[in-house]
Amino acid sequence: MEAVHSTSIKGTGVVAGIAYAPAVWARPRPELPTPADEVPEEQRSGEYERFVAASDTVAERLLKRSSHLEGSAAEVLKATAGMVTDRGWRKTAQKFINKGQPAENATAAATDKFVTMFEAAGGLMAERTTDLKDIRDRVLAELRGEPEPGLPEIEGEGVLFADDLSPADTATLNTENIVALVTELGGPTSHTAIIARQLSLPCIVAVGSSISSVEQDEMVLIDGAMGTITLNADPVLSQEKVRESRETAALVAQWRGPAKTKDEYRVQLLANVADGSAARLAAEGQAEGIGLYRTELSFLSASEEPSVDEQAKIYRKVFEAFPASKVVIRTLDAGSDKPIAYANMIAEENPALGVRGLRIANNNEPLLTRQLDAIAQAAEGRGDEAPTWVMAPMVATAREAKWFAGLCRERGLVAGAMIEVPAAALMADKLMPYLDFVSIGTNDLTQYTMAADRLSPQLAYLTDPWQPAVLRLIRHTCIVGNDTQTPVGVCGEAAADPMLACVLTGLGVNSLSAASTALPGVGAQLAKVDLETCKKAADLALESVGAAAAREAVRELLLG
Ligand code: PEP
Ligand code: MG
């Protein structure tokens, strides 16, 4: 029999799982218009009507699709429809048409203008540019009478390939047919990755330009844990791997906490939440409590600071979901990619390294103490079985830890700090004596250790929590935690990765906090190994030359 020569392409694996199916490319984006002759003045109003009709049709189509959906998927489509009918965007397009541009060119020019504005604003605004380009493409296709770009209708199973998926595309994915996602762009925290995690679809992002070597309908083997796309894979072996992966998925679905290793070593699994409804969902699942309540996410669109009573009301909703369990609440992590109008007063050249997190209180302590008062008020009446822990983001020095802990204790609150600045990890022995606990934020710890923007799709190979440099900082933190009897948790995306969770357990981390949907996968993997194996996995990862080698070595140990 002739040997099959398989080739592999690598990206960043963000959701584990194996799939083997034909590649299906998202329908291509329409060509952008080339410069055109000036439209005579008397035809310009007709041209604007054509633009309005096309964008109305696109908005109606999105709204109609949203009416068949529920929850965040429906919200995403409604928000996109809202952008198509945005008055500012339409007015800008009208201006270009009034200057003589055809509707197609005006659509592209108006979008470019908004994209430039959003990119200059940076952070979350910059991430919205994918949405803007998505509506431009839909309107362009409508103007030309072409099929709507985006997801194809397919029969049977397929692995969806795309340059990047728009929020509207990911919200309407048909998971009966689509068995995995692969994108050229995106990163571990991109929209595609978040939705794939929610849908438990194997997903690889940031593959780069080599993705174009994958042809429509070509059979591909996807390994979401390793981030590999294999072409020409052996069909029999591939089917076998898919079967094993489905068995694992079934074990995960049946897993019930509390989490422990095979030899009964307990690891607390907690949920990351943004509000009361996410906390209620977490309480229905396997979370033992909340490990990270990101309070700033409730205030992203607030122009004024809510009063202490108003804040307490919001926080109480999260506490109520876990009336008899631990809740770790984080004070405002405003700034960088999460600007909050009332907290971030100055424009900065380099906001990720600027006045963010606890630093916003340097010149505005009352902003922090009002939040602590609100937390204390919301936590009133919670018994000893429901401890309320409060932690500050972006702590860098022992002085900051002491100051924050003092303010917490004045209000009877248990005080902690996030370890997400490398300096805090290295100086853990000086910080911990002031603190009751620490929680490692691996997303930022990786960003700052590797000097790589966590939102950059080009740098996904650096912003990978498997980087041994990051793991060495975690090891140091755990050693000091053990010496000083200070609990050490992890609440970044690293805690959602089942294999990495074993490494973290081996390093001495006591609790892992992640999206509640990720917890059964972590719990089921921990149940398969003993503590000694976790320690071996940790040693292998620490001694690896890089993130990919660490992942490979640990996978070999844990999965054989
Ligand atoms: C982190 O940095 O790992 C973290 C948990 O905080 P956030 O992702 O909200 O910055
Ligand atoms: Mg952080």
TrEMBL record:
<feature type="domain" description="PEP-utilising enzyme mobile">
    <location>
        <begin position="157"/>
        <end position="227"/>
    </location>
</feature>
<dbReference type="InterPro" id="IPR018274">
    <property type="entry name" value="PEP_util_AS"/>
</dbReference>
<keyword id="KW-0598">Phosphotransferase system</keyword>
<comment type="function">
    <text>General (non sugar-specific) component of the phosphoenolpyruvate-dependent sugar phosphotransferase system (sugar PTS). This major carbohydrate active-transport system catalyzes the phosphorylation of incoming sugar substrates concomitantly with their translocation across the cell membrane. Enzyme I transfers the phosphoryl group from phosphoenolpyruvate (PEP) to the phosphoryl carrier protein (HPr).</text>
</comment>
<dbReference type="GO" id="GO:0046872">
    <property type="term" value="F:metal ion binding"/>
</dbReference>
<feature type="domain" description="Phosphotransferase system enzyme I N-terminal">
    <location>
        <begin position="10"/>
        <end position="128"/>
    </location>
</feature>
<keyword id="KW-0762">Sugar transport</keyword>
<dbReference type="InterPro" id="IPR023151">
    <property type="entry name" value="PEP_util_CS"/>
</dbReference>
<feature type="active site" description="Tele-phosphohistidine intermediate">
    <location>
        <position position="191"/>
    </location>
</feature>
<dbReference type="InterPro" id="IPR008731">
    <property type="entry name" value="PTS_EIN"/>
</dbReference>
<keyword id="KW-0670">Pyruvate</keyword>
<dbReference type="Pfam" id="PF05524">
    <property type="entry name" value="PEP-utilisers_N"/>
</dbReference>
<dbReference type="GO" id="GO:0009401">
    <property type="term" value="P:phosphoenolpyruvate-dependent sugar phosphotransferase system"/>
</dbReference>
<feature type="binding site">
    <location>
        <position position="294"/>
    </location>
    <ligand>
        <name>phosphoenolpyruvate</name>
    </ligand>
</feature>
<dbReference type="InterPro" id="IPR006318">
    <property type="entry name" value="PTS_EI-like"/>
</dbReference>
<protein>
    <recommendedName>
        <fullName>Phosphoenolpyruvate-protein phosphotransferase</fullName>
        <ecNumber>2.7.3.9</ecNumber>
    </recommendedName>
</protein>
<feature type="active site" description="Proton donor">
    <location>
        <position position="491"/>
    </location>
</feature>
<feature type="domain" description="PEP-utilising enzyme C-terminal">
    <location>
        <begin position="257"/>
        <end position="530"/>
    </location>
</feature>
<dbReference type="InterPro" id="IPR000121">
    <property type="entry name" value="PEP_util_C"/>
</dbReference>
<keyword id="KW-0963">Cytoplasm</keyword>
<feature type="binding site">
    <location>
        <position position="330"/>
    </location>
    <ligand>
        <name>phosphoenolpyruvate</name>
    </ligand>
</feature>
<dbReference type="InterPro" id="IPR036637">
    <property type="entry name" value="Phosphohistidine_dom_sf"/>
</dbReference>
<dbReference type="GO" id="GO:0008965">
    <property type="term" value="F:phosphoenolpyruvate-protein phosphotransferase activity"/>
</dbReference>
<dbReference type="InterPro" id="IPR024692">
    <property type="entry name" value="PTS_EI"/>
</dbReference>
<dbReference type="InterPro" id="IPR050499">
    <property type="entry name" value="PEP-utilizing_PTS_enzyme"/>
</dbReference>
<keyword id="KW-0813">Transport</keyword>
<feature type="binding site">
    <location>
        <position position="444"/>
    </location>
    <ligand>
        <name>Mg(2+)</name>
    </ligand>
</feature>
<comment type="similarity">
    <text>Belongs to the PEP-utilizing enzyme family.</text>
</comment>
<dbReference type="InterPro" id="IPR040442">
    <property type="entry name" value="Pyrv_kinase-like_dom_sf"/>
</dbReference>
<dbReference type="InterPro" id="IPR008279">
    <property type="entry name" value="PEP-util_enz_mobile_dom"/>
</dbReference>
<keyword id="KW-0479">Metal-binding</keyword>
<feature type="binding site">
    <location>
        <position position="420"/>
    </location>
    <ligand>
        <name>Mg(2+)</name>
    </ligand>
</feature>
<dbReference type="InterPro" id="IPR036618">
    <property type="entry name" value="PtsI_HPr-bd_sf"/>
</dbReference>
<feature type="binding site">
    <location>
        <position position="454"/>
    </location>
    <ligand>
        <name>phosphoenolpyruvate</name>
    </ligand>
</feature>
<dbReference type="Pfam" id="PF02896">
    <property type="entry name" value="PEP-utilizers_C"/>
</dbReference>
<dbReference type="GO" id="GO:0005737">
    <property type="term" value="C:cytoplasm"/>
</dbReference>
<dbReference type="GO" id="GO:0016301">
    <property type="term" value="F:kinase activity"/>
</dbReference>
<feature type="binding site">
    <location>
        <begin position="443"/>
        <end position="444"/>
    </location>
    <ligand>
        <name>phosphoenolpyruvate</name>
    </ligand>
</feature>
<dbReference type="InterPro" id="IPR015813">
    <property type="entry name" value="Pyrv/PenolPyrv_kinase-like_dom"/>
</dbReference>
<keyword id="KW-0808">Transferase</keyword>
<keyword id="KW-0418">Kinase</keyword>
<keyword id="KW-0460">Magnesium</keyword>
